[in-house]
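Thread: Modeling a multi-component assembly for a lab meeting

Hi all, long-time lurker, first post. My supervisor asked me to bring a structural picture of a complex we are working on to next week's group meeting, and I have zero experience with this. I have the sequence lines for every component (710 residues in total). Could someone generate the structure of the whole assembly? Inputs are pasted exactly as I received them:
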Amino acid sequence: MSSIIKIPFGPQHPSFKEPENFMFKVDGEYVVDVTPRIGYAHRGIEKALEDRTYILDLYLVERICGICSQAHTTCYTQAVEEALKVDVPPRAKYIRTIVAELERIHNHYYWLGIVAHEIGFETLFMYTWRDREIVMDLLELLSGNRVQYAMNMIGGVRRDITPEISSEIMKGVKVLGERMEYYKKICSNERTVLTRSVNVGILKTKDAISLCAVGPTLRASNVKRDVRADDPYAAYDEIPFHAVTYDGCDIASRIATRCDEVIESVEIIRYALGHLPTGSIEVIVSRLVPSAEIVSRVEAPRGENMHYLKSNGTDKPERYKVRAPTLANLTALCKMLIGGYIADIPVVIAGIDPCFCCMDRLTFVDVNNDKSWGWKGEKLRRYGIKWYKKQ
Amino acid sequence: MVQETIISLLQIVIFPGFLFFIIAAFFYEWVDRKFVARLQNRYGPLHTGPLGLLQPFADFLKLLSKEDIIPYAADKLLFSVVPIFMLSLPFTALFCIPIVNSTAPISFEGDLILVIFITTLIVISVFIGAWSSTNRFSTIGGMRACLQMLGYEIPMTIVIAGPAIAAKTLSISKIVQWQTAGFWFILTQPLGFIIVAICFLAELQKIPFDIPKAETEVVAGWLTEFSGKKLALLRLAGDLEFVLAGSIMTSLYLGGPSGFWFMPPFVWFIIKLTVCILILSNLRGLFARFRIDQLMRGVWKYLTPLALLQIILVELIPW
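Re: Modeling a multi-component assembly
Sure thing. I ran the full set together rather than chain by chain. Output:
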C-alpha cells in the first residue's frame, strides 16, 4: 500500500491571502485528490442587499471585492439602469470603461506578483508590486481612492476626467505598458519561471468549456470568450480591441494571457481617452425601480461577473444574486490540481486568480457548502475506507 | 606557558573563535538581506543600528525572548537537542578554516573530509528535527531536504576533490598554503567553483533551492514547529552555515587569507568571503524556485557529469 498523506491547505495558509480550505490527498509529491471547502468568508451580502435601498446597495456592492470593485458596481448599476430604462450618457460610459481597464491593469500586475511569489521568484514580485503603485496612484488621481474607487452611480459616474488627469493617465499607462512588455519577456525567457509554469496545471480546451471556466483562465485554454467582445457593455462596442487567447492551457499561457491583456488594456485606455465624448456624466434617476428581472454581465479582471436583480417597484431589490468569477473557476481548478505535484499547488491555485471573499458572499455557496460538509463527514470517511481497501 | 594558554583560549573564544564567528554570521545575514533587498528595489534593514546593521542581532534577541513551544506530539528530547546540535556543527567546521594566517586552529591531514562530513550531518539533523516535530509540513520539508541532499552532495564532494588532488593534500590549511605559494584554484578550476556555488545554494536552502522550506507550499517546511529560543538558534545556525559555505569557497578556490600589497591576510579573507557571499546572494535574487524533481533531474543530468569532467581535467592538465 502506498502511503497517502492528507494535507490541509488553509483556511489559514501563507499562500492564501484569504481563508479557504483545500483538503489534499498526496502520495509522495503527487496530488491524488482534492476537496475544496468554501464558505469561510460568507458574510450574507445578498441578504443585506435586500434590506437596503438601491443607493445604499451601491456601497455594499462596491465592497464585494477589494480589487474588482469597479466591475461589480458596473454590473450592479447596469442592472438597475436597465430596470429603470435609463440611458447612461456616452461620456459616463467611456469613463466607466477607462476605470475598468485601469482596474484590470491593477489586478493583472497584482496577480503577476502573486504568481511570482508562489513560484519563489521574489525579485519579480517586488518589481511588479512596485509598478502597481503607478496604476494605484492614477486611480487615486481619478477617483480619490486607491481601492474601491466609488466611480459608478446609478445613471452615470461620480467624477469627470479633466484634460490634466487625462494627460497624467496617458503618461502612467505608457510606463505600465512598457514595464509589462519587459515582464512578459522575462516570463517567457527566464528558465526557472518556464520550468515552473510550462505544462503545469493543465486545463484542456474541452474541460475548460465543460467545467464553465471564465476569464483569463478560459482564454488561456484557447477559448475566445470575453464578455467585453461577445456582449459589449459600457463603451466596449465602440472601442476596437481583441480578446487575447493562448493555446498552452497551462500556467505559462495564463501568465502570457494576462500580460497581453494589460498591453491591450493600455491601448483601450489610450483610445478611450482620445475619443472621450463631450456632454454630461450623469442623469438623474428615480429612486423607485419598476418591477423587472435583469441579468447583467461584466468582464471583471478575473473573469465573467454575473449579477441578477429582481425588483418589485419599491426602492429596495426583492432579490439580488452575485456570481463572482472565482466560483465559476473552482471546478476547473480542482481538475487542474489532480495529478500535479504538491509544489505546484500554490501556483495552480493562484493561477485562476482566486478571490474567495467575492465568492463566499453568495447564498448559493451556502447550499454548496452544506453539500460539501456532508461529503466531508461520513461520506468522505466511507470514501476513504473504500479507497484504502482498493489499494 | 600561562601566556600561551591565555592566547590560545582567547583565540578559541574571541578571535578567530566563537565571538568572531557569531558577529560574522550576523554581519553576513545583514549583507545578504541588504544586498537582495537592493536588487529587488527595496530598502532592506534600515532602522536598527547604522544602516540596519544590528537588525539580525535584534531579531535574534527578540526570538530568544519569545515563548518556546514544544508540540504535544513531538519527540521532546530530539526536538530540543536538534537546535544545539545544528549550531555546534558549523562552529566545529569553521575552526578548520584558516582565517588569520594560513594555518587553521584545527588542522590535520583529512580535515577537508571532516568538513564535508559536517555539511552532511547538518542535513541529517534537519531531517531529525523535522521528524521529531511530527508536523505534516515539517515531515515533508525534512524529506525534501534529504532528497535534495542526495542530489547536490555527490557533485559537490566530487568537485571539492579537485583542489585536493591538485594540491596533493586533504588538509584545507595545506590547500591554502599551496595556493599562497602557487596560484588560486579558481583560475584553473572555474567550473568547479561554479558547481560548488550552486551546490552550496542547495545546501543552504536558498532560492532557487529553498524547496525544503518553500513557504508557499509547506509553510516553513522543517522549521514549522520551532519557535522562540530554538528558532533563534536555528536561524543563527543557518547564518553560520552561510559563513561556512562562503569560507569553504574562499579557502578552496580563492586562496583563503593569502593576498598581496600591505593589507593583513585577515582583511583579504574578509574581502574574499564577502565576494563569495555576494555571489550566493545575487543568485538568490535572480531565480524562481525549482521543484524538487526538477532539482534532482538537473543535478544528476548536468552537475554530476560536469563535476566528473572537472576532475578529469584536473588529472589531465599538469598544473
